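Please check both lines for our workbook:

___
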Amino acid sequence: MCNGTLFENYVTASTFRSIQTSFYQLCLALDIDPSDSINVYPKLRLLDYWKAQKLWKLLDRKWELPVYKNQNAGRLLNVFVIGAGPCGLRSAIECALLGSRVVLVEQRDRFSRNNVLHLWEFVIQDLKSLGAKIFYPKFCTGSIEHISIRQLQCILLKVALCFGVQVYDSVTFVQILFPKNEDNIGKFFLHLLHANYFSVEDSTEMSGFRACLEPKGHILSEYDIDVLIGADGKRNTLPGEHLSLSHDTVGYDQRRYSNYATKPVLFMRVIQSCTGIVWEMRGKLAIGITANFINNKTAAEERVPEISGVAYIFNQTFFKEMYDETGVDLENIVYYKDDTHYFVMCAKKHSLLDKGVIRKDNDDVSQLLSIRNIDQEALCRYARAAANFATNAMFDFTSLYSSKCSVRLVERLNKYLLMGVVGDSLHEVSSCM
């Protein structure tokens, strides 16, 4: 198979696994070691294929920006990113551009989120500068300013791999492990005198901060970490406040730490005590419904206009007519077409009760929207299910979480770990915003 065909396979790959497989096949054909992070892109760009050259022209502009100092700004840093969502992948790309050795772990083995994101103009321009239209020609054509999360992940994963980010799926980050080998502190500084990165083999001589992972014994368990970025959303597993040095791990496990006087505190959690570091913002009850329907991409479907956002306060007649005819009472609705027909709407509680979607009223929102209290068939009818396949979900958009701090620096045995959170781990954003 010629190199041009291998590149085309990479560009058109549309799943998490197929993107990785096609990239490694391309690297094998070009005699590139994907683990040689800093040299992946310089070697990859030697591929002389017309579409590849179009991509390299765009990526070169990023690669050569003065702010990255010829990839020396972060050259001696080992970066570990948790989560392959859009923010995790974009953070990994930025760290790779700075010259760091970047690894990223994702607990899933597929991209399955068809939720559609509306993109700000500066985000569109950033993605175009990273070759988004080469990987996805329909990206933001005409007046379209949105994209499905799954498609966005595919684009960013391809860019990340080009820049030498090492990606591992089906790996779960559990907690941080403190450095243990006090006798080898001096070797850390000797390593800094060399231009090479720390390798897995090096870590057996000098143990720094490491990650406890599932499955156990994963190769990255021996990876020394200088910078840890949490991008695993509301699940966020990164610790927050500084812990006693008597602890061997940083993480939050209620059972494991029940006997400690000082328990680890996460970057994100509902405030339960005066030591909490996350704000919970709660306002007027807003119940969100998302629905994805199969897009058969027929001519009739293509003619259906999208709804970029209609709110009750701006179009009361529209929503009153909807309520009179269907009994569906909404605050707003958005409709986008992508791989699916995607709807997101905020519904009023009384209409969900009247239509039998919510079985019983409850002042406790978690109980109100628990799966046991939702009639799924009624929910599908409420969302105007019109196909054999439909996925629907209900969320509480009233309570949003925001980290009180975005970065923390941890020190032990003269070794430092910079931790940061991005995306929903930093600030949870309502899908209806």
